[in-house]
Amino acid sequence: MNDKLHIYHGSEKIIRAPQYGGGRKHNDYGPGFYCTEIRDLAAEWACTPFGDGFVNHYTLDMSMLRTLDLNSEEYSILNWIAVLVSNRLVGNGTAIAGRAKKYLKEHFYVNVDAYDVIRGYRADDAYYDFADAFLNNTITVEQLARAMRLGKLGEQIVLKSQLAFDSISFEGFETAASDTFYPLRKARSNTAEREYRTICEEETDGLYMIDIIRGGVTNDDARIPRNIP
Questions:
Q1: Is 86's pLDDT higher than 60?
Q2: Which pLDDT value is given to residue 228?
């Protein structure tokens, strides 16, 4: 078994030594260092409309690290969204969304801080809109699960603990050209939004958030779509 994982981090700067405790509090999985195994995705996220970025390349020694794989079949889309609403400012301003967030935290939350490394959905602003729609009872859990696979953003690798930061080695960097990679990022997001509108137009008798609350649905319910690695 190969315990060495090659990961990439897109940024406007070169980061030779990622620092534990850095990063924004309100990221998907809380504070941490967010990476991907896909170099071109890191390049897309490194760029802005106004300038180039950098793809930082690292090797992560996984041999001593506890990993939570939220994309495994053990977990569902509701585990992911329960973590999301605990860290990101989504689903605010309506009574049903407030009830939804409370229910998800009580019944589906996974303690990501108990692990060194997290594998989970990778998202952008469009995907937070999908989550917001679900919390506000306008799409079903089945539609949400389909929406989260749109755009093929894949999964992200997040370093959470001091041990994880001690296990990462900088391998180098390369420039990501904005005129090449930012249009790809924009096109990926636009495609996801267009396909999402098609999903929303479909007739469905699936589980809405209000059904989950009223029915006391828990994580072992067969009607909840399981994640696909």
A1: yes
A2: 57
- DSSP letters, the chain, are ---EEEEEEEESS--SS--TT-S-TTSTTSSSEEEBS-HHHHHHHH-BTTB-EEEEEEEEE-TT--EEETTSTTSBHHHHHHHHHHHS--S-SSHHHHHHHHHHHHHH---GGGSSEEEEE---HHHHHHHHHHHTTSS-HHHHHHHTTGGG--EEEEE-SHHHHHTEEEEEEEEE-HHHHHHHHHHHHHHHHHHHHHHHHS------HHHHHHTT--TT-TTSPBP--
In sequence order, the 6+-apart residues with CB closer than 8 A to the CB of 84 are: 28, 90, 128, 131
The residue type of 96 is I
Task: Show me where the domains of the chain are located.
Answer: 4-214
Q: How confident is the model at residue 120 (pLDDT cuts 50, 70, 90)?
A: confident
Question: In whole angstroms, what is the distance from residue 152 CA to residue 19 CA?
Answer: 29
Mean pLDDT value of segment 81-85 = 87
Asked whether residue 27 carries a pLDDT value surpassing 60, the answer given is yes
Q: What is the pLDDT of residues 193-205, one digit of tens each?
A: 888 888 888 877 8
Global pTM value:
0.88
The string of pLDDT tens digits covering residues 168-196 is 999 999 999 999 999 998 888 888 888 88
CA distance 125 to 130: 9
